[in-house]
Amino acid sequence: MTSPAPQAGSIRFGTPAARWVVFATVLGSGIAFLDGTVVNVALPTIGRDMHAGIRDLQWILDGYLVTLSALLLLGGSLGDLYGRKRGFLTGLVGFSVASAVCGFAPNAGVLIAARAVQGAGAALLVPGSLALISASFHPDDRGRAIGAWSGLAGVAGAIGPFVGGWLIDAVSWRLIFFINVPLAAACFVITWRHVPESLDEDDRGVRPDVPGAVTASVGLAAMAYGLIEGRWSVGIVGALIMVAFVLIERRAKHPMLPLSIFRSAQFRGANLTTFAVYTGLGGTTFALVLQLQKSLGYSALESGAALVPITFMMVLLSSRSGALAQRIGPRVQMTVGPFVVAIGLLILMRVQPGRGYFETVFPGAIVFGLGLTITVAPLTTAVLAAVDDQHLGVGSAFNNAVSRIAGLLAVAALPMIAGLDTAAPIATFDRGFRRSMLICAAICAVGGVVSWVTIRRSTPITSVPQASVFQPCHDPGVITVPGGRPT
After folding, report:
1. Which pLDDT score is estimated for 377?
2. How far apart are CA 381 and CA 378, in angstroms?
3. Of 12, 138, 284, 352, whose CB has the highest number of CB atoms within 10 Å?
4. What b/e sequence results for 351-381 when a residue is b if at least 16 CB atoms lie within 10 Å of its CB, and e otherwise?
5. Residues 11, 477: Cα–Cα separation, whole Å
6. CA dihedral for 67, 72, 77, 80, sign (positive or negative)
7. Cα 104 to Cα 112: distance, rounded to the nearest angstrom
8. Is residue 307 a contact partner of residue 161, using CB atoms and an 8 Å limit?
9. Which pLDDT score, from 0 to 100, does residue 462 have?
10. How far is CA 469 from CA 130, 134, 247, 268, 480, in A?
11. Residue 40 vs residues 293, 295, 437: alpha-carbon distances, Å
12. What residues in the chain have per-residue pLDDT under 50?
């Protein structure tokens, strides 16, 4: 049985075929993006239902992030080698099966294991969705198609926490996992019937970098385990395994992460800034949702809705931020933006029992979202401008992975460093929350300093690879399109 989809690279924007491709890729990547945000909102409810402590909650998030972070680069390359449509469909199957197991999970251990499998499926969906868009459309229409994809993904990201919170309050937290199954099934059918297959003919005969992927996964998992469980020896072993990963990539004939891209000081600096800002984002969303539900008595729906201003700020203003970076270069925005993020976090320190939403949460979320908006589009521009055309895809994918790893380590380390414990009295938890916000603010400010030192003033982008474009982690409204104009 063969798919009646049109030929890759021939689809014109505005046609029925184009609408099917955009819809399939938005739906597929959307369930992966939404799962990351909605689970944050569900954590307190899951903790109460399963009698799970703070460590279990950390693993419910980090089990997903470990496999997703480690396998993103491999997921993109597998699509290039064996077929982007095939890889995308495989990711859908794995993600949906794991989602069903999450929904039926009888305890935290099963849920954590299923979340790790979800992350592996998402590692095929996230790069595969945008690669399919880029490979399916005619070159003259590729930018418009990516713009439509990013806008729809942005809307999905904005409503996700709100809808997820409603499902949790009205039915059960299990529904946020079960709902993935029919969505993935619909996406599978649409993709099979309407999306053309494509692969990179130049990579025929190249073997995937399995040793690198396995080493990265084990190293990240060991580091997360050491931080969450307080086993420093395991964390050190994890760090040593990551050193071994670098050595493997140096000697690999076809590494998934070519080390030559790190020769650029700007590439190193932009990724350090990415790490700083997304550490703040990951730590904040984890701690703030717990604070809202544990200390302030918010429902899952209310806590999900409380974070919507952050996403809306990014969806509404990211294109303007990208256009400004294109005119003046990314350095100023990448310096100012992290400091604005830090100010937003200092405002969020005031989120305490007895204080209203519009007094503390809303202004903090607005400033925090503004800082992310100022930072992210220029950051993407700086990353892609720092590497040559041959490595644009892997450079962007690595930046995506850095943002995931930053969130992973923030969730793993912050409770231990700040004293954030859901089993503690509310007054003790409040102090841990304030320390968490202060730590995240300081890290973000360091990112601004790094940008000022390492980022060149003017960094025009002339091209983006046809089938290896990867979206940054937490900003579905911001990507870079052919021609170098962020949408």
Report:
1. 79
2. 5
3. 284
4. beeeeebeebbebbbbbbbbbbbbbbbbbbb
5. 23
6. positive
7. 12
8. yes
9. 43
10. 6, 7, 26, 19, 8
11. 11, 16, 17
12. 1-3, 459-487
Residues recorded for the chain: 487
Token code pair at residue 141: 């229409």
pTM above 0.90, yes or no: no
Q: Judge whether 89 and 188 are in contact, CB under 8 Å.
A: yes
Closest CA to 32 of 147, 122, 92: 122
pLDDT at 336: 96
Res 4: pLDDT: 54
| pLDDT tens profile 154-187 | 667 667 777 888 889 989 999 999 999 999 999 9
Q: Check: CB of residue 277 under 8 Å from CB of residue 372.
A: yes
d(Cα 414, Cα 287) in Å, to the nearest integer?
Answer: 9
Distance CA 486, CA 317 (A): 11
3-state secondary structure of 11: strand
For residues 180 and 96, is the Cβ–Cβ distance under 8 A?
yes
Place of tokens 């080493």: 215
What pLDDT is recorded for position 11? 80
Q: Which helix (DSSP H) or strand (DSSP E) does residue 248 occupy?
A: helix 232-251
Write the single-letter amino acid at 185.
A
Q: Is 426:295 a contact under the CB 8 Å cutoff?
A: yes
CA distance 302 to 41: 9
Alpha-carbon gap, residue 175 to 136, rounded angstroms? 33
Contact 182, 27 (CB under 8 A): no
Residue corresponding to tokens 């990208």: 322
CB–CB of 218/241 below 8 Å?
yes
Cα–Cα separations (whole angstroms), residue 300 to 17, 64, 102, 165, 319: 39, 21, 18, 5, 31
The per-residue pLDDT for range 320-330, each reduced to its tens digit, is: 887 888 788 88
Residue 298 backbone zone (phi > 0: left; psi -120 to 50: alpha; other: beta): beta
Backbone angles phi, psi at 92, to 5 degrees: -60, -45
User: Is 83 exposed, middle or buried (CB count within 10 Å of its CB: 0-12, 13-18, 19+)?
Assistant: middle
Q: Which of 59, 71, 164, 80 is nearest to 121 (CA)?
A: 71
Q: Give SS3 for 10.
A: coil
The Cβ of residue 409 has, within 10 Å, a number of other Cβ atoms equal to 22
Q: What is the DSSP letter of 141?
A: G
What is the pLDDT at residue 154?
Answer: 64
Rounded to whole angstroms, the Cα distance separating 148 from 393 reads: 20
